[in-house]
Design a protein that fits this description.
The complex is a heterodimer. Chain A is built from nine helices and no strands. Chain A has one domain. Chain A is mainly alpha-helical. The radius of gyration of chain A is 17 Å and the shape is globular. By secondary structure, chain B is mainly alpha-helical. Helix content of chain B is about 75%, strand content about 0%. In chain B, strands 1-2 form a two-stranded antiparallel sheet. In chain B, helix 14 packs antiparallel against helix 15. The longest helix of chain B is centred in the C-terminal third of the chain and has 31 residues. Chain B is globular, with a radius of gyration of 22 Å. Chains A and B meet through helix 5, helix 6, helix 7 and helix 9 of A and helix 7 and helix 8 of B.
Chain lengths: ~200, ~500
């Protein structure tokens, strides 16, 4: 593949990633339901992975591929956890309600790239790969969009709390929660997966 | 190096207890209320805070026990046994470690005692656990030898403080997180630029910056770090979060208003002079001086003009951020005296202790009399003499009056400024000191004179204990004031040596 085509692909992917990130954050900031806001923020999280991929295409020696793998994994885990919590439905109190609240909170933290979740390390690697690719402007944009992501998070928190998680859903939520926090506290786990994905390419 | 100390294990267990209590309270919300009579349940509410105070007291003990070793010049590694594999969470117990541990744990101790003294505080388990978590994260952030871990723990502390404030005032909590998160993101950008410049092959990232890196890159890195810490230390124009948090009650502002400035100042001290030679950064110095002078004057004036005690405390906190920036900014001059950086280091330790006295006094009066409007509190000092004494000692220390600890910092700062021929800046600092002293004395005058209008609602032994402790600590520092100059030198060397012995970044 010629270098001009490669750089064109990288630029297009970068622009798409930036556009999706901005659009997702703007849409998430005005949600009608907590689930909708979360869904738009998941799109924003995914677009960070696209940005990292673009950086990898532009500068193959960068951490882009590893960052994209880690960011993708973190977003998937957060989406599954948030989906489970929001899918619990209703406002009925019950023994599983604190779990649903904690699960949703941690999922939001991961999407926002905040500690102690996998999202923090993923976001750092994405930013670093952008820097390595020489895309300082995109890095500034990514950090600004990340800060703007607090607005939908605050809106979602004010929209009420999820219902109860019971049975198999509760077990699955605990597992996902543990995975997100474990990778957050022990980032070596996530980075190994990222290395594996990057190595296989 | 690396030995597991029994006291740290006990400390870890004590730290964990309020978290277990919070978990139990979350899962079994009606257990304590159902199992006990109302009076007993009320008495039990103080339990988590007293556990938190006990854990903090252990931290103070740990810090004090480290002093002889660190003063002897032999570094001690304090390994947290459950975090051995988490990055490199090792506190390289250099001379900075002991004072930072003692200061932050003493603050945590007094905050817990203060919260234990408040009546009918909902969700006490959560509050105790969150204060402890924030305190622990700030300690880790100040002392971690790993750049990314520093940001990780800093942001985690922000989350804990956000949750803590959210329990009472969601709006103020959101403002707090928004403003400080933006600062944290800018700080992270600075750290990432450092990381990118240094490269993966380095195992000691920060000293690498001392070898030739283009001056404009150094300038940018340091500028990002400086701008990133501004919201943390509540510097103008990003001090709105502190006033918003204090709006509800001084109790809300106590933890974020004290812990975040310590963290911000410590990080700034470690990352700016700790990683680059300040003399190379005249632009940074100019930014620091302009922002510092503006913040100092604005904070001092507003503290004088305000009519509520909580705002006196909040604006005095803002003014102290300005003083710190002046010390850092002036130290960036190529002809700066080393005393200026020492002043910054001493300020990081002395100002929070004095501010603690002011905040505790404001909080105690508000709790006891139900208001913190100064006109409504005429003559209350006769009924709350301890609060008045803590306000006097803390406030005058902030104004730099001898022989309080603030005087030593001001002496170093002003003599450094005069030696560097920055007379105008020394005059600005002295003028602001006069305004701070007038603000504190005028507030006290209004609290002393007149007949008491506000009637005391209740009294708390815990608050009295907290006020006595902070007053004694500040007065005791008077006895050690001759040694404070040496302490500032040690603290500065500690800050720089931890930064310059950075451990490898995660690959």
């Amino acid at each position: 593949m010629s270098s001009s085509l490669t750089s064109a692909i990288a630029i297009i992917a970068g622009l798409l990633g930036a556009a999706f990130a901005a659009y997702g954050t703007v849409r998430a900031a005005r949600p009608q339901t907590a689930a909708l806001g979360f869904a738009w923020m998941t799109l924003t999280g995914g677009s960070y992975a696209l940005l990292a991929l673009a950086a990898a295409v532009s500068a193959p020696q960068s951490d882009g591929l590893r960052a994209a793998a880690l960011q993708g994994g973190a977003v998937l885990l957060a989406a599954a956890l948030g989906g489970l919590s929001l899918g619990a439905g209703g406002e009925a109190p019950g023994p599983g309600r604190p779990l649903a609240r904690v699960a949703l909170f941690v999922a939001w933290l991961s999407l926002l790239g905040l500690p102690p979740t996998a999202g923090f390390h993923a976001r750092i690697l994405v930013c670093r790969s952008l820097l390595q690719a020489g895309w300082s402007g995109t890095l500034v944009f990514a950090l600004a969009v990340g800060a703007a992501g607090l607005v939908p998070a605050f809106s979602a928190l004010s929209l009420g709390s999820p219902g109860s998680l019971r049975g198999g859903r509760a077990v699955l939520a605990v597992l996902l929660l543990a995975a997100l926090l474990m990778v957050g506290v022990y980032p070596g786990l996530g980075l190994s997966v990222g290395d594996f994905v990057a190595g296989s390419h | 190096m690396g030995a597991i100390r029994p006291d740290t294990i006990v400390l870890n267990w004590l730290l964990a207890l309020p978290f277990f209590a919070a978990l139990c309270a979350e899962i079994f919300p009606r257990l304590s209320l159902g199992a006990h009579a109302e009076r007993e349940a009320e008495a039990l509410r103080r339990g988590p805070f007293l556990l938190g105070a006990l854990a903090s007291l252990m931290g103070v003990g740990l810090g004090i026990s480290l002093i002889p070793q660190t003063l002897g010049g032999s570094p001690v590694a304090v390994d947290y046994w459950w975090t051995r594999d988490l990055y490199h969470l090792r506190f390289q117990a250099d001379v900075l470690t002991a004072p930072v541990l003692v200061l932050l744990c003493a603050m945590g101790l007094l905050i817990h005692l203060y919260l234990a003294g408040l009546p009918l505080l909902p969700q006490p388990h959560h509050r105790a656990a969150l204060v402890l978590a924030a305190q622990g994260c700030v300690v880790a952030s100040c002392l971690s030898a790993d750049l990314i871990l520093m940001c990780f723990t800093m942001q985690l502390a922000l989350i804990c403080l956000w949750l803590l404030v959210y329990l009472d005032s969601p709006r103020a909590a959101n403002t707090l997180l928004s403003v400080t998160y933006i600062g944290g993101a800018i700080l992270l950008a600075g750290v990432l630029v450092m990381w990118n410049r240094v490269g993966d092959s380095s195992t000691s990232p920060l000293p690498m910056l001392l070898v030739p890196v283009e001056p404009h890159h150094l300038q940018w890195m340091s500028l990002l770090v400086l701008v990133g810490v501004l919201p943390l230390i509540a510097c103008f124009p990003s001090s709105g979060w502190l006033l918003g948090v204090a709006e509800g009650s001084p109790a809300l502002a106590l933890a974020p208003g004290l812990l975040l400035p310590v963290a911000g100042m410590c990080i700034a001290l470690r990352l700016i002079p700790g990683s680059v030679t300040l003399g190379l950064l005249p632009g940074l110095g100019a930014v620091g001086l302009i922002l510092g002078a503006a913040t100092l004057c604005w904070g001092a004036l507003r503290a004088w003009l305000t009519i509520s005690l909580r705002n006196v405390a909040a604006w005095l906190t803002v003014s102290q951020a300005g003083l710190f920036l002046i010390a850092i900014g002036a130290a960036a001059s190529p002809t700066a005296s080393p005393g200026l950086l020492q002043a910054g280091a001493l300020h990081t330790l002395a100002a929070p202790a004095a501010l603690l006295g002011v905040w505790l006094a404001a909080g105690a009066i508000r709790c006891r009399f139900g208001t913190d409007s100064i006109p409504d509190l005429a003559g209350v000092i006769g009924k709350a003499p301890l609060a008045g004494f803590a306000l006097l000692v803390g406030g005058l220390s902030l104004a730099g009056l001898p022989p309080l600890p603030g005087f030593q910092m001001q002496r170093l700062l002003i003599s450094g400024l005069l030696r560097d021929h920055q007379t105008w800046l020394a005059v600005v600092v002295l003028a602001a000191d006069v305004i701070v002293a007038v603000a504190v004395l005028d507030t006290l005058r209004r609290l002393v004179s007149g007949t008491a209008v506000a009637a005391p609602r209740w009294s708390s032994p815990w608050l009295s204990v907290a006020l006595i402790v902070v007053s004694i600590a500040l007065v005791a520092a008077v006895g050690a004031s001759a040694q404070l100059g040496n302490w500032s030198d040690l603290a500065l060397r500690g800050a720089l040596s931890i930064s310059r012995s950075g451990i490898s970044l995660p690959r």
